User: What shape does this take?
Amino acid sequence: MNSEITGVILTFIITLVIAFPLGKYIAKVFHGERTITDFLNPVERFIYRICGIDPHKEMNWKQHMAAMLSINLVWLIYAFFILLFQSHLPLNPDGNPDMTPDLAFNTAISFLVNCNLQHYSGETGVTYLSQLIVITFLQFVSAATGVAAVAVLFRAFAEKTTEKLGNFFVFFTKTITRILLPLSIIMAIILAFNGTPASFDGKDSIITLQGDSVQVSRGPAAGMIAIKHLGTNGGGWFGANSAHPLENPNYFTNVVEIVAQVMLPMALIFAFGFFIRRKKLGYVIFGVMTAGMLTLMIPNMISEMSGNPLLHHLGLKDVTAMEGKEVRLGVPASAYWQVMTTIISTGSVNSMHDSSMPLSGAMQMLGMMTNCFYGGKGVGLLNYFIFLIIAVFISGLMVGRTPEFMGRKVEAREMKIAAIIALFHPFLILVGTALSAYFATHHPQLAWSVQPANWFNNPSNHGFSEMLYEYTSSSANNGSGFEGLADNNIFWNITTGIVMILGRFIPIIGPVAIAGILAKKKYIPESAGTLQTDTTTFGIMTYAVIMIVAALAFFPALTLGPIAEYFQSY
Amino acid sequence: MKKYIWPSVKLSIFMILVLAVLYPSLIAAISKAAPGQGKGKTISVNGKVVGYENIGQKFTDDKYFNGRPSAVDYNAAGSAGSNKAASNPDYQQLVQDRIDTFLIHNPGINKEDIPAELVTASGSGLDPDISPAAAMIQVKRVAAARHLSENKVITLVSDHIRGPWLGIAGPAKVNVLKLNIALDTLK
Assistant: This one.
């Protein structure tokens, strides 16, 4: 057991050691300073030229958002139609069928919005072509969209008073050429050399040692698995995601994959501090997020490592919680992944969350409900920014000063946006869960393809958790699931599709709008009376706001699910 | 928004070519140099492929070391966990049945000594490994079924234990397929 704890601590240290210099590098890339990847300059100029983009044309926040929505609309339509007709297209060695319209709707949105909720299984639900030109493609560009959006925030606070916040297409392109693609190539090669398939061969048929006939699904998976983590996407090549022994062959690849998904969200926080030349603010934000991570990580670890109460009741001495977990990874590395993947919105899994212990399930859901401890690619910091603005406002009221952030007054308009965004996430989750719970309890025998009574893989409170988790994961754009839920049917495909798309774009547009509005305001130099936002005190204040606003809103729902289950199990 | 649509379309086409065509082709080409040429590492016995190193197989025979329960019956055409919660009564019965089955096949073993992983399903349904303890507890049965001395089998298991990563991080494990292949050659 000791070597497993060492593994987890080592993993976190490796992440931090890579994230810090990476943050410096990202700040330089967006500043346009000299970096080791400058040899790509001509490539980028070529891209801008053939695509008719003027890289020197700066946009205000509204133009940024218009550009973002335009390109996302193109991707949505494109992805939907490819998935709908995939069986008629080439590169389908396993002969997988077209998606149904509702599944294609759900899947196209899911990958567009960086959520990667999968209501299909990779081995049977998509073709190799779809895996590449839809899934892998969207995993790159949705991550780059998030980073491009947060770059607007960077620019808004880097200068005194400005409307010019850079060019969306330039931020987007540079994120791919300078950050995501180079890192993905390195990581994909590491995976391929550790046993992850990368060739285009279809399923293999073999006779096992004992004489059974089985098939083995394969495919060009390594490249997709790399960006799935680096882009905090999380959608797996295989159904079992990173629990699959080809998707995550050994402990080393497990470390690589979990480091890859956490390092960029972390690096972006440092990058923010470097970019606006207030390193201390970056460190304070990092500190609050780490405190938040530990608040969820420690109970989750304890709950997983203290074992499965059922095995104890059945009279076993070894009660290790191995249901849904893999021997080569073990419990601590699985528990560490459970929390990291939910707080940073990746949603890839190396163990089945549905089979984790009740309180671990609560921590995983809280990770997605707060959704800003490190957070997803770009959007984590944007979510955090909302809470920061609310903390500024409340602190200002408490000490009787005009709320100010970085030399700009925070006024009614910004506060309204922040309040709406902060409440929107609980709204989507709780309304969705209430709706599904209504059908499950009042109309269990509805003549749908899957009757609501048959949605659940587990009865009672855990069944409620399966619904709550599904909407939480959709709204947080996380993509993991309590996968026992029978979710590939019209009700779940449509409702989670709508929740995912709203849960993506509203929480991006809101903070970017606030940043844009603040950037335009008159800059007030700091004085002795200014509220300091880069202090520990203010950090604690922000932490409290996140816990009160984001976590407590969900307490009643969590009580009906994992908390009730906990008291029944022990 | 209209003025952004056309650049968006062109940029998308370019990115599809780079990210979804060139990038995976590059990785596929490089992986030709990897063990298994990027098709997955296979294991052969007498020139015949009997399995993939990383994909677990179903072993129910008493003369083989058994792997973990699987929600997909070890058919790697798909992959999945059971997604059962500990609070689920059906699941509780299932685990009880697995314990009973294990005790029938392994006489002389105390119930309380059964390792948890041998009565719980893995995350992928394809877990290729078991822990050293889970291998050792089956030694008695395997040795009896093959009329071998227990010491010989214990030595074989010990030889197949793979320690933690770098010797310091993660669990120790035994690859069930490799162990069973070696077992077949034991006299």
